[in-house]
Prior knowledge:
The chain is of the alpha/beta class. The two termini are 15 Å apart. It is globular and about 65 Å long. It has ten helices and 15 strands. It has two domains: 186 residues, Quinone Oxidoreductase, Chain A, domain 1 (Alpha-Beta Complex); 118 residues, Rossmann fold. Strand 14, helix 10 and strand 15 form a beta-alpha-beta unit. This is Alcohol dehydrogenase.
Amino acid sequence: xxxxxxxxxxxxxxxxxxxxxxxxxxxxxxxxxxxxxxxxxxxxxxxxxxxxxxxxxxxxxxxxxxxxxxxxxxxxxxxxxxxxxxxxxxxxxxxxxxxxxxxxxxxxxxxxxxxxxxxxxxxxxxxxxxxxxxxxxxxxxxxxxxxxxxxxxxxxxxxxxxxxxxxxxxxxxxxxxxxxxxxxxxxxxxxxxxxxxxxxxxxxxxxxxxxxxxxxxxxxxxxxxxxxxxxxxxxxxxxxxxxxxxxxxxxxxxxxxxxxxxxxxxxxxxxxxxxxxxxxxxxxxxxxxxxxxxxxxxxxxxxxxxxxxxxxxxxxxxxxxxxxxxxx
Length: 328
């Protein structure tokens, strides 16, 4: 095993332009830890956002990246994982991440990859699919089964609509017109182009007397608040980006519940039982992808050496799909 490895290192205050390909000492796993040799890494919006915004635990040379997949290269004391096992993971933002040849992880959160799933496909699952799973878990059963997913062309919402349909929910969505045919083929009953000023009126006409039970917003807290009036009595407003700092509707009106989704917080605030539940859910989602029960977003391949350029394209939204790099 080498003593150093290639990583993308972060520079404070320099954003994406400050990412530099550097060599760092190869970390060694301590008790409860596992060292994974990355075979694929996937990009998520949180990656470019934290590169630009910064993080309290980051310093010169910190390695960004939350999602990856690879093989177990070394284990620490108390870890029962065989060397060479194929695993996927979602890394804490407070530690060196996946934009590297190796990644040091909490062994309790790594997920086994099904034998019939390509490792690059597995890398693209953890952040978006687990976020979708968490978002749906926030919503209790109600009198209505109608839910609305905002931004269903994105990776999180694309997984979310599929899981929701499979749970028996009646799913409506907003997305660019190029996504409509595929979303309807997945069981979405109606898709509206968010660029049309009257899409809300069309949704309400289609719902008729049925109330909207839940709304999943992937845009921003302010955007979610602007749509709260669409929800019925005792409905659920789920923010996948940001959160609601103030109630968006008057008290004692429709009495909606407000939810935030914070997948990465499990590393700092989750107990062992929370991490175990996340691992089980992740492995179930990976199995569904392997069996074709969950379709992944279109994959956009890029070279590890061009990672900053791919992050920039993800930020600009110039291509629709999931950016994944395969490492030798």
